[in-house]
Amino acid sequence: MTETTQSDAAHGVIETNKNNAAGESVIKVGYHQNLTNEDLAPLRKQSWTWYNIFAFWMSDVHSVGGYVFAGSLFALGIAAWQVLVALIIGIVGVNILCNLVAKPSQQAGVPYPVTTRVAFGVKGANVAAIIRGLIAVAWYGIQTYLASVAFGLLALKFWPSLAQYDDVGRYGFLGLSLLGWAGFILMWILQAIVFWNGMETIRRFIDFCGPAVYVVMLALAIYLIAKAGWSHVSFDLAEGPGKHGWESVTAMISAVALVVSYFSGPMLNFGDFSRYASSFGEVKKGNFWGLPVNFLFFSLLVVCTVSAGATVIGKDDSGKIITDPVHIVDKIDNTTAAVLGVLTFAIATIGINIVANFVSPAFDFSNVAPTKITWRTGGMIAAVGSVLITPWNLYSNADAIHYTLDILGAVIGPLFGILIADFYLVKKQKIMVDDLFSMDPESTYAYRNGWNPVAVVAVVIGALAPIAVVIWGTTYASSFTWFIGAALGGVVYLGGMRTVPDRFVYGTPAARAKALA
């Protein structure tokens, strides 16, 4: 028996797999099996540096969706300086919020769904886990589909005869052409391979891909600007009359809200990654370089590329500026540049999909049934689910994607608000790590039979208002659903924990006394 093993045994620690996919963890003898597996337990060693967090955000930003989103902000019809001000305010806000949500997971060394046991209870945390997992499945499918389009365009560039297999009417199944299926399955397999090899492989993947994508993006921007001339580069991508006066102010406010909402998914489950950081200081440093600095530079690079691209390659068939980078590089005459560009953006999208929509549901679904669902199994459940929802049909139907994703997304706000209100205002930044894995009715997070009724009620009330806005409100109002949900969820939870009788929240007097100590 080694010295480490002897020390573990003396402290009641069970030996775990040192090569575990999600990282080597520490499981103690008293941890309940229905709450614990090697993927959910606290990490034995937290080794990520600020650069790993920085690379995480680079991978999160450098996607086809991120490119289109950044370009759309400059097409709102307001002056470029107003867009930049909105970008800075929005991304600084995201940076602050990410620091807040990162601390509990970094402090305890556990992923997001385990952290939510502090507020929801050891069983009630599955509410948050399932909601977040379903959102990730939908986005995973859509991002996989968007990246697969790049492979289809690349195949047609080299083998034009394949065009017949891109016809859904002749060679289609469930709304996707044979060529489309080939690209989707290829992307699906590539992502599964990276994921299956574990968090260490994912860390190395994003460490490399983040900077590598920047190199190609810079080369693409320089190429297009050189072809178009700097005089044809504009920071205003809006078409038609611009907004002025109060209308421009409301557009700026909307832009700020859109930036925060865009990052709401990875922001909520950022604990899945901050748990690996060696210190909270490393997290804050990585967030600063990965969010305000990185996103602002990325946005400026995007608008230069899109603007110059409009001159070099022209507009689409409807006369609109092309903001999708895959379609921009596909229209470039230089075959080498086009191939390199398409492959780069496909790889970039693999990066965001893995970090935002593969890792997170893996932890979420594992949290629901730790004895039956490992981290790898949870990820594959998400991957299979992403095919079953036929994301290409969802993406092509504006109403379907609006109601599906916006209604699911409306629930992200309350989950965030509850987590922050509980950790900082109710629990005063204290976590009893061992009690996160205890089914003892007198443990800190037992509440009522493992459920905190106040948290459940706060989610329902916090979600109803933003969902109502999505269904019956205006497009402008829908920009603020995250804020509405976060504020309502946090306020209702905080008010409930301070006013609802303790006997309603906690099952036993002993549990009540321990939780309030």
> Mind telling me the C-alpha Rg?
24 Å
Number of spatially distinct domains: 1
Please identify which CATH superfamily we are dealing with: Hydantoin permease
Q: Which structural class is indicated by helix and strand composition?
A: mainly alpha
How many strands in all?
Answer: 4
Low-confidence spans: pLDDT under 50, at least 5 residues? 1-6
User: Mean pLDDT, rounded to whole units?
Assistant: 86
Helix content: 55-70%
CATH class: Mainly Alpha
Distance linking N and C termini: 40 Å
Shape call? globular
Adjacency order of strands in the biggest sheet: 1-2
User: What string gives the helices and strands in order?
Assistant: HEEHHHHHHEEHHHHHHHHHHHHHHHHHH
CATH topology: Hydantoin permease
Number of contiguous helices: 25
Strand content: under 5%
Keywords: Membrane, Transmembrane, Transmembrane helix
Family: Belongs to the purine-cytosine permease (2.A.39) family.
Transmembrane segments: 67-97, 137-159, 171-196, 208-226, 246-268, 289-314, 334-356, 377-395, 407-426, 454-473, 479-496
Membrane topology: Multi-pass membrane protein
